[in-house]
Amino acid sequence: MNESPIASVQNVSKTYQQGSRDVSALQDVSLDIGQGSFVAIMGASGSGKSTLMHLMCGLTRPNAGTVTIADQNLADLSDRDLTLFRRAKIGLVFQAFNLVPSLTAQDNILFPLFAAGLDFNTTPDPLDPDPCNNDQKVAKIAERLSITDRLSHRPDSLSGGEQQRVAIARSLITNPAIIFADEPTGSLDSDTGQSICQLLRELCDQQGRTIVVVTHEPNVAIWADDVVVLKDGRIIDQFPTNSFETPQALAAHYQAATNTQHGGSPPSGTNGQINRDGQKNAGRNDDTFTSKGSYELDQPTAS
Ligand SMILES: Nc1ncnc2c1ncn2[C@@H]1O[C@H](COP(=O)(O)OP(=O)(O)OP(=O)(O)O)[C@@H](O)[C@H]1O
Q1: Are residues 88 and 164 in the same domain?
Q2: DSSP secondary-structure letter at 4?
Q3: 18, 21, 55, 289: which is deepest, by most CB within 10 A?
Q4: pLDDT tens track for 93-120
Q5: What spacing in Å lies between the alpha carbon of 73 and ligand 1's midpoint?
Q6: Is 18 in the pocket of ligand 1 (CB under 6 A)?
Q7: Following CA atoms 267, 198, 87, 284 in sequence, which dihedral angle do they give, to the nearest 10 degrees?
Q8: What total of structural domains would you count in the chain?
Q9: 48 within ligand 1 shell (Cβ under 6 A)
C-alpha cells in the first residue's frame, strides 16, 4: 500500500455489556484497507464481522483502539459530527436493501444526498470532474447500474436484484470514500447475487471505489481482492483471492483457516497490514442486536 489507507483499524477491541456480563466481540484487531481495494470479511456467525463493520462505519465506538476513515480519527468526532461524517463519506448497502417503500427509486437514490446536506443543483460535486445537477447525477449512476428505466418505480415494483442496484446507486450518490456492504447478496438468488458481485467488482475496477463486503459466501468473497477471516473476535487469516481459481478452492482454504486454532497457512501476498492473532472464545449470546438491516439508517421511516 503506497499511500495512507482509506480505512485503518488499529488495536481495536469491542465489548458489549449484556446484563452483568461482558461479551467480547472484537479483541485487538488491526486492519488497513487501501484506497480502491475490494475486501471481503468472512467468519462464522458471531465471529465479529458486523461489529468490525459497524466500527468502521462509525455506527458504534470501540472500547479501545482507533478507527480512521479518510484520514479522520472517528474518536475525534462528536456523535453529531460522526453522523454527518458517515452520511457524507460512507456508503452503506444492506442485505435487506432498506429502501423507503413510499419513495421512487430516484428519490431513494437522492435521499442520502439531502441527508448529508449536499445539493448538486446549487453546489457541484467537487469530486466529479463532469459537473451535473442532482437529476443528471442520478441518471449517470443509474445508467452505469442499468436501472435507468426503473427510476420512477417504487421498491415494491422492482425485483430483488433491481432493488439492490437502487441501494447501490443510493450508496454512490454522495461519492463516499468507502462503501460497506453487509451480506449484499443474502436476499438474492444465486445468479442475481453474482451480477451484484460483478457490479461491485466493476465499480472497484472502473471507478476506483473502495468496497468492503461482509459475507459468509465464498462465491461472493472470490470477487474481492483480499479476504479477511475473523474467528472469535480476532483476525486469524488474510489472503489474496488471486491464489484461488474457484470459490470451492477459496472455501477450502477458508475452512482450513477456521478449523485450526491460529488460522490457516501463512497467507501469501499479504502486505503486512494485517495483524493475525490466536483465538479467544466470545460466543454469540445476545438477541437484542440484529446485524442485518438494523442500523441507524439516516432515512425516514416509510409512511
Ligand atoms: N449489542 C450487542 N449486545 C451484546 N452482544 C453483542 C451485541 N452485538 C454483538 N454482540 C455479540 O458480539 C459477538 C460478535 O457479534 P457480530 O454480530 O459482530 O458477529 P457476526 O460475525 O457479524 O455474526 P453474524 O454473521 O451472525 O451476523 C457475538 O458474540 C454477539 O453475540
Answers
A1: yes
A2: P
A3: 55
A4: 988 899 999 999 999 999 999 888 888 8
A5: 24
A6: yes
A7: -50
A8: 2
A9: yes
Residues 102 and 149 in one domain: yes
Domain limit, last residue, from 126, 153, 176: 176
In whole angstroms, what is the distance from residue 81 CA to residue 207 CA?
28
Residue nearest to ligand 1 atom 12, measured at CA: 25
Q: Within a domain: residue 288?
A: no
CB 170 within 8 A of CB 108: yes
The answer to whether the beta carbons of residues 58 and 67 sit under 8 Å apart is: yes
What number is the average pLDDT over the span 67-88?
95
Question: Domain of 159?
Answer: 76-176
Q: Which of 14, 41, 50 to mutate to test ligand 1, by most ligand atoms within 8 A of the CB atom?
A: 50
Decide if 192 is inside a domain.
no
Looking at residue 2, what is its pLDDT?
Answer: 53
Q: Is 290 in the pocket of ligand 1 (CB under 6 A)?
A: no
Whether 188 is in a domain gets the answer no
| 205 located within any domain | no
- What is the distance between the alpha carbons of residues 104 and 23, in angstroms, rounded to a whole number? 41
pTM of the model: 0.84
